[in-house]
Amino acid sequence: MKYLKLTLLSMCIATCYYMLTIAAIGIAAAGKIFWWLEWKDNFHFYHIAQNFIGIGLAALIPAFLVHSYEPNKKWLTICVVILASILYHGNINYMPLDPNGFIRFFDSTIVYGDIGSYGVALEIVLLPMLWLLVFKCITRR
């Protein structure tokens, strides 16, 4: 029963994380995070920085929820959240739980993607883990 609860909690958090990252990527694509700054020299760096801030804020919520509600199995839970989010990202135009979503995600970001898609893929995978480490360090003190 514990693992069923962990799986259901992870899938709910992953759905929210997926929606938040899609919104963050859309806001960064519209150029609305650093609206006061006109960066004309290196647009790719500017876009990656916008995605980093947007996805970083989106990753804060699932990391906090996992840290709060599953403190004993937080690493397993965050891994399930990240994998489910990758599955949802890969299945944007397909059925939500199609297992080929993993392949589609890595094909569209790593194999056929540019530097921006590499950054987005790494941010989606690594930033929730980074926030979980930050929460772990904060609670130790």
Account of the 3D structure:
- The chain is an all-alpha fold.
- It has five helices and no strands.
- The chain has helices spanning 2-29, 43-69, 74-90, 101-111, 115-140.
- Helix 2 (43-69) packs parallel to helix 5 (115-140).
- It is globular, with a radius of gyration of 16 Å.
- The model has no long low-confidence stretch (mean pLDDT 86).
Summed up, what is this model?
The chain has 141 residues and is mainly α.
Outline type: globular
Number of helices: 5
Helix content: over 70%
Distance between the termini: 33 Å
Average pLDDT metric? 86
Strand element count: 0
Instruction: Write down the secondary-structure element order.
Output: HHHHH
Strand content: under 5%
Largest sheet, strands/sense/barrel:
none
Kindly name the structural category.
Answer: mainly alpha
Q: Stretches where pLDDT falls below 50 for ≥5 residues?
A: none
Q: Please tell me how large the radius of gyration is.
A: 16 Å
Question: Main attributes?
Answer:
141 residues; mainly alpha; globular
Tell me the layout of helices and strands.
Layout: H1 2-29, H2 43-69, H3 74-90, H4 101-111, H5 115-140
